[in-house]
């Protein structure tokens, strides 16, 4: 199948390590390496979703055959975040690719706001990366269960070849940015087994124009996470008007800058999070 080469995606020089919230001492706080890992995952989630949403809107404007374009899988390649559109067959053992969206080159630089498309008259079969990613997302959606509003899924490989599958609520009204009730699953490399479930936030609030407001970052009946979540970084990066955002956990206050970087701060402010 004609395709752009899929690149191995790593987060800075740290790889994709899992951070168990609450492992850091309440007095010293988490290391900068832990915070940088959250930043890396949040940036990857934002890159994935930005590419998927932008490429989808541009492709749908061309009125493609809906039978051939039933779903998408984004991945990081040499040219940036690429989006493959296609469908799973009935046996769920082949992903047929009908279109590939590639970041367009503008003044010699690849951009994430405009995509060029390769279209295949005969959809090409993929039985490896795209298939496993699609199955991992389907498993996460099935595990999450029915919800009252639609969710967006993203499957990003970690350094071990497993998947981080994120489910984040989709907007259901113009200019409304839903925050909360999001979850991250760690799924086996073949996309068939849930290895870990990490509830990122409980409760949901809708915010206008992507501005950050208070978000309950507590799992019912379980301790409050003491690290910012990947989706906290994601929401800062995806805001229409990005601005530094404070995140408060049970023991610590953090500041997420407009580039997604996180630092531990001492003062309290208007927060994304809950001090309970």
Task: Describe this structure as you would to a colleague.
This protein is an alpha+beta fold and 276 residues long. The protein has one domain. It is 20% helix and 35% strand. The protein has helices at 32-60, 129-144, 230-238, and strands spanning 71-77, 80-88, 95-106, 109-126, 151-157, 163-169, 176-180, 183-187, 194-199, 204-208, 245-248, 253-256, 262-265, 271-273. A 4-stranded antiparallel sheet has the order 1-2-3-4, sandwiched between helices. Strands 5-6-8-9 form a 4-stranded antiparallel sheet, with helices on both faces. Strands 13-12-11-14 form a 4-stranded mixed sheet.
Task: Name the features.
276 residues; alpha+beta; 4-stranded antiparallel sheet; globular
């Amino acid at each position: 199948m004609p395709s752009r080469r899929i690149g191995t995606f790593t987060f800075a020089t740290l790889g994709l390590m899992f951070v168990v919230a609450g492992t850091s001492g309440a007095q010293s706080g988490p290391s900068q390496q832990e915070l940088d890992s959250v930043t890396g995952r949040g940036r990857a989630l934002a890159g994935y979703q930005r590419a998927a949403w932008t490429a989808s809107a541009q492709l749908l404007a061309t009125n493609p055959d809906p039978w051939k374009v039933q779903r998408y899988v984004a991945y990081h390649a040499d040219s940036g975040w690429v989006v493959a559109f296609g469908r799973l067959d009935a046996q769920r053992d082949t992903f047929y690719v009908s279109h590939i969206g590639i970041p367009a080159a503008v003044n010699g630089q690849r951009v994430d706001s405009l995509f060029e498309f390769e279209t295949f008259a005969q959809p090409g079969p993929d039985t490896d990366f795209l298939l496993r990613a699609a199955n991992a997302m389907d498993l996460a959606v099935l595990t999450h269960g029915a919800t009252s509003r639609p969710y967006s899924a993203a499957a990003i490989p970690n350094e071990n070849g497993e998947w981080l599958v994120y489910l984040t609520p989709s907007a259901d009204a113009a200019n409304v940015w839903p925050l909360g009730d999001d979850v991250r699953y760690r799924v086996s490399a073949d996309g068939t087994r849930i290895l870990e479930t990490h509830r990122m936030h409980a409760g949901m609030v809708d915010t206008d124009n992507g501005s950050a407001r208070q978000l309950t970052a507590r799992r019912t009946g379980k301790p409050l996470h003491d690290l910012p979540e990947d989706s906290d970084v994601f929401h800062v990066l995806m805001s229409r008007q990005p601005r530094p955002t404070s995140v408060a956990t049970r023991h610590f206050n953090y500041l997420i800058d407009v580039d997604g970087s996180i630092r531990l701060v001492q003062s309290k402010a208007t927060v994304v999070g809950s001090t309970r």
